[in-house]
DNA sequence: TTTAACTGTAATATTTTTTGTTACAATTAA
DNA sequence: TTAATTGTAACAAAAAATATTACAGTTAAA
């Protein structure tokens, strides 16, 4: 995970939580993050599919939270946004003729899985509402 | 962290732990991981600077552990290998004129720091020796 | 009913990161 | 003296991430 997707998603969700009920446009959100609006729109679609937000097309359209910020855990945002494994990629073709190469990926997977579970549990304790409270 | 550095470093260290005392060449290690030997040598240098391994130049040279595998925690390997933040990059220039943009990176940093600490503590409980025991 | 402000989406380009390659000096054992 | 090796630099290629352009479709309101 060497991208900005988690930061971007949290930024979007925090903005929406900060202005509850208001329909915010992707251009406004993009201006706050200072990235391209199309990237925001793509992430909004992911957040919408996850059930966190709802959108309205046309003039005066935009997005807003689909449920209370206190009902959304940071772990849920993390879940929809993470792509690879938390501790990085595995090597693709370790040598099966070697004791270590043969079993390395299976054993790494175990470790990666445990680590991811740990993070998910930790982030589950934190709600979007908690996080949004940190802003003026 | 969307690279193979952690997987590569663990693979290297597991191999060395699996053949204690033996000087393994970077070519042999590269053949086990199935990656380019130069990448292995670069990672070996990092592991050497961290004090985990020692190397011998010249014919019959190679690398071996500088201390017992039971004295090396997985968290230490994670520490030397991680580059960015565990939950990804922050956006570079959030808008300081926005309540959220102004403080987002500081608040993300807090969250990232807590998360990283959690992982470090978890991986500290696991030694290289434990991990190496999983291999035939 | 026309216009302007939006979302949704595709296609493509650019930049950044990661991985691989080639080359060779320096070292060591035999 | 030769062969095997580490250490290191410079560069190339591939993959991933981010940005850009374009436009069809929707909606509110003048």
Largest sheet of chain A: 2 strands, antiparallel
Q: Determine the most extensive contact between two protein chains.
A: A-B, 53 and 53 residues
- Note the gap between the termini of chain A: 29 Å
Count of helical segments of chain A?
A: 6
Question: Share of helix among residues of chain A?
Answer: 40-55%
Mean pLDDT value of chain A: 97
Beta-strand percentage of chain A? 5-15%
Question: What is the number of E strands of chain A?
Answer: 2
CATH homologous superfamily of chain A?
A: Winged helix-like DNA-binding domain superfamily/Winged helix DNA-binding domain
- What is the CATH architecture descriptor of chain A? Orthogonal Bundle
- Radius of gyration computed on alpha carbons of chain A: 18 Å
Low-pLDDT segments of chain A = none
Multimerization status: homodimer
